[in-house]
Design a protein that fits this description.
The chain is built from two helices and five strands; from the N terminus they run E-E-E-E-H-E-H. It is α+β, with helices and mostly antiparallel strands and about 100 residues long. It has a single domain, classed as Gcn5-related N-acetyltransferase (GNAT) (Aminopeptidase). A five-stranded mixed beta sheet has the order 1-2-3-4-5. Strand 3 and strand 4 form a beta hairpin. The longest helix has 16 residues. The chain is globular and about 40 Å long. The termini are far apart. GO terms for molecular function: acyltransferase activity. This is GNAT family N-acetyltransferase. Keywords: Acyltransferase, Transferase. Its EC number is 2.3.1.-.
Length: about 100
């Protein structure tokens, strides 16, 4: 896989994880909103230019790692994130 760097951005009760792929201007995003102390993963967006490289999976992994480190729970509202949680039962500790 090509190098992917994930950065996290927070603005009050919302935020996003942004995937920067080496040698590409396109970025992938996982957008979340916090409600009732739970961060709901609302949308995972990966443009075709960087698709098929595991970018969406890396975004979800970053959110799971962040949840463990910062003690919050994830509500998988996005269908991709919901499917990822089904594939990874070891993430149950952070699923809302």
């Amino acid at each position: 896989m090509v190098g992917v760097t994930i950065t996290a951005h927070e603005n009050g009760n919302s935020g996003e994880y942004v995937a920067h792929v080496a040698d590409h201007d396109a970025t992938g995003r996982l957008i979340w909103e916090e409600r009732g102390g739970i961060r709901y993963a609302e949308h995972t967006l990966v443009p075709p230019a960087i698709g098929g490289r595991g970018v969406a999976g890396r975004l979800v992994e970053a959110m799971v790692a962040d949840a463990r480190e910062n003690h919050f729970r994830i509500g998988p509202s996005c269908s991709y994130v919901a499917a990822a949680f089904k594939r990874h039962p070891e993430w149950a500790d952070v699923k809302a």
